[in-house]
Structures are given as structure tokens and as C-alpha cells.
């Protein structure tokens, strides 16, 4: 059974094909050892397609959807155009390895593409993340780091701003109350003088 890997980077979606699994075996320890060597890992995993995000705002939208376990139209298009077709009623001859089981179940439900998320897939994706800039030749040095930094800041800012169920809400209110008390004490002491 063929194994494809979905990797969501800060600069776009990448699909990899893991085809030399006989060389390293199906056990996690063998994958863990082969990940550090690019020559050995490059024989096992090949880039099938890379679809960059159109803008930083698009990257943030895609990242938010992935973190919530939602399948966007862009991701669905990437998967349907680059993976073999799944025939209705027949067992698929491939599976898609994803890092998050939530997005995997959403992909399987909507597109009928079988997904798996286990320790073996996690190790393969760790190797992809480690050597990603070498797989995608179009990126200039520093582009990936800038994209990761920018997306990280935007994602964190958006999550802090829009999270209404914040746990630190009481801390923020307590600090505001202390500031108000401090101002009131200063005001009263000025009047007493």
C-alpha cells in the first residue's frame, strides 16, 4: 500500500510520497535513525507537489482551519488533484499520512481518502520538516524562516485576540482592578492632604 504524506508548512501545502519503505522498514526506530541522513531519507520520501499560499493572510486562514480540524477548499483541491482517485465502493490502494488526527478524520469524511496518523507517520513528517528546504528548491535561503516567523506571530496574535474563553481573563481583570485601586488610593490621599 502506497503512503502519501501531507505537510503543512508556513509557505504552503506539500505532498510527499513515501515509496522506499522497504529500505528502512515500518518500525519507528528505523525511521528515526534514517531521518537525520538526507541521502538515506531522500531515497524514501520524494516531493510529489508543492502548492504555495498566495499571501500571508491566506497562510493564516489555512493555518487556523488546520488547527481547528477543518478541510478548506484549497486543501481539498490540492489533495484531489495530486492523489490517485478513490473509486467508490473499492478499497483504496494508498493512504494519506497526516500529523493531526482531527484533520485526518475530516479529510476521510469529506473526500473518502483514507488517512492515518500514528508514530510512524509522525517520524516521517519530522524528517520532512527537517529537510523541507532541500526538498523544495524554489525557496531562497531565509524565505522559509521569514514565513514561519511571520505566520507564527500572526497566528498567536489572532488566537490571543479572538479567544473568548481565555483562562487568563481573570488575571487581566485583577491587574485592571489593581490599577484602578492604585488610582483611587492616590486620589483619596490627595484629597486628604
Automatic annotation (TrEMBL):
Pfam families: NOP5NT (PF08156)
Domain Nucleolar protein 58/56 N-terminal: 4-69
GO molecular function, one term: snoRNA binding
GO cellular component: box C/D methylation guide snoRNP complex; small-subunit processome
Official protein name in the record: Nucleolar protein 58/56 N-terminal domain-containing protein
